[in-house]
Structure to design on (346 residues):
């Protein structure tokens, strides 16, 4: 994917140099980034863009949970899994999952459930790992209600949804595990302030898959896609490279976080931006620009970018410019750029 190859490596113009941008929080904490680099907008295959997209989606999840709490509602998290076997193509599994989720969230049954349970809507996140038996996909869904709903009542709703899930998988030639043997999990969500943050962060980490230690081996030796990528870079094994290629191809164009119709509007969230729009948005303003790296020096700086940003955050702009000078990397004071610029920040 050309966009993925250029993400965080090639400047927007293709000829100019990137700009160091340093912002400072109200607590006095510095944050450094580089503006003027291309972004691919992939939440699945790009470690750079996925972090930024996940941060935005986590904030949105937190806002929805807070809105439900403020309205006196309740939330349960439902997890749906599906059976898989070694050798099944990831693309086929994902297509079947998408059909099954549409069966869960559409049709007359959903309208009856809205009325019976006071169902406000759902937010769906997909988690993926690879292990001894191949690719494993499952769905985590936050189900929001307009009032208190007991664990027992939520379990009844979950069972009804699971039957639709199971039937759709069977029509696609697959099967779900038995409901009482890991096929369905229903858990209430504590809507206290700390718990809201914890749930939002948990689902956010699932979407980015590279934070919070998820690069490590999962249960049973399963690996997240970015853990597969780590192993490709570390060992160069052909089998891992093939797995990563499968992941890139099968995940392309898929929605990572999906909202049921009307839930965002009910919670007061602004219109949803695409992953590409989130990834391309810059943090801070042109007033935070510190210095511009000469175009011819960017290839020399690129392998050491993380170290340079650490220096800028820890010791400030003077140390960042001195770091460049000592290494013979040409730079100039940054000029104020138009605020309408859509360059990305990494």
């Amino acid at each position: 994917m050309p966009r993925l190859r250029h993400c965080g490596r090639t400047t927007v113009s293709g000829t100019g140099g990137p700009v160091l941008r340093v912002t400072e929080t109200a607590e006095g904490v510095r944050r450094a980034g580089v503006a003027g680099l291309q972004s691919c907008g992939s939440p699945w295959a790009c470690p750079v863009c996925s972090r930024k997209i996940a941060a935005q989606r986590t904030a949105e999840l937190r806002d929805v949970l807070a809105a439900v709490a403020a309205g006196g509602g309740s939330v349960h998290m439902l997890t749906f899994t599906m059976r898989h076997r070694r050798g099944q193509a990831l693309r086929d599994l994902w297509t079947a999952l998408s059909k099954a989720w549409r069966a869960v969230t559409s049709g007359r049954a959903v309208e009856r459930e809205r009325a019976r349970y006071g169902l406000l809507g759902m937010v769906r996140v997909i988690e993926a790992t690879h292990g001894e038996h191949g690719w494993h996909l499952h769905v985590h869904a936050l189900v929001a209600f307009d009032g208190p709903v007991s664990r027992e009542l939520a379990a009844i709703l979950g069972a009804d949804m699971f039957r639709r899930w199971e039937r759709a998988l069977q029509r696609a030639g697959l099967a779900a595990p038995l409901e009482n043997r890991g096929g369905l999990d229903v858990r209430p969500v504590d809507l206290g302030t700390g718990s809201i943050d914890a749930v939002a962060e948990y689902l956010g980490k699932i979407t980015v898959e590279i934070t919070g230690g998820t690069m490590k081996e999962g249960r049973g030796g399963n690996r997240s896609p970015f853990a597969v990528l780590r192993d490709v870079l570390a060992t160069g094994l052909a089998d891992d490279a093939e797995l990563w290629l499968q992941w890139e191809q099968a995940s392309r164009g898929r929605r990572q976080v999906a909202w049921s119709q009307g839930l965002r509007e009910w919670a007061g969230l602004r219109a949803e931006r695409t992953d590409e729009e989130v990834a391309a948005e810059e943090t801070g303003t042109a007033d935070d620009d510190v210095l511009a790296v000469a175009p011819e020096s960017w290839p020399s700086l690129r392998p050491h970018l993380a170290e340079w940003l650490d220096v800028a955050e820890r010791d400030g702009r003077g140390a960042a410019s001195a770091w460049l000078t000592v290494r013979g990397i040409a730079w100039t004071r940054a000029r104020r750029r138009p605020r309408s610029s859509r360059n990305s920040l990494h």
User: Anything to note?
Assistant: The two ends are 19 Å apart (CA to CA).
